[in-house]
Amino acid sequence: MFVLVLLLVPIVEVFAFIGVGLAIGWLLASALLIGTSLLGVPLLRIQGRAALQRVSSALSEHRPPGGAALDGALGFLGCILLVAPGFVTDVLGALLLFPPTRALLRRWISRRYARRVMSFAATAARFGPGGRAVWPADVDSTAVEDDQHRLGA
Q1: Relative orientation angle of helices 26-60 and 2-24, to the nearest 10 degrees
Q2: Which of 102, 61, 81, 69 is nearest to 13 (CA)?
């Protein structure tokens, strides 16, 4: 699936560039493509700092940092998509930079993967340091009392 995406994205980007070039002109399409890539670089720095600040403030306020970290990762991905050349990736990147779009995607990711993460964490805790596996006892045994003088002690 990943290989298919790697092959299809450049093809889609070429067709999108041809379509935009025919609609607004090749020179303007090229300038727009270069401009969005140059705009993505400072936004990448800004989003990175903002993400670190949100996670840090969540930790200092004793709130779970997962939402802030995921929000920061989505903003970072949006900037990366802006830096990557192509109109389709620029549109996807711009959508990820808007907080309402990020909130919707964050909610979808949280719902989709929360159960998997919790299952993995429960499984990994059994085998981690200090983690004790709780296995049901299935051994039958009996206890016998012996006299101390018969044992030679």
Answers
A1: 130
A2: 81
32-47 per-position pLDDT tens digit = 999 999 999 999 999 9
Q: Which residue is listed with tokens 């929360």? A: 114
Q: What angle do CA 22, 23, 27 make, to 5 degrees?
A: 65
- The residue whose two tokens read 């802006």 is 82
Taking every pair of C-alpha atoms in the chain, what is the biggest distance, in angstroms? Answer: 105
Segments making up each domain of the chain, as ranges:
11-112
Nearest-angstrom CA–CA distance, 88 and 74: 17
Task: Enumerate residue ranges in the chain where pLDDT < 70.
Answer: 124-141, 143-144, 146-148, 150-153
Q: Which helix (H) or strand (E) holds 30?
A: helix 26-60
- Separation of alpha carbons 15 and 87, rounded Å: 10
Helices (H) and strands (E) in the chain, counts: 6, 0
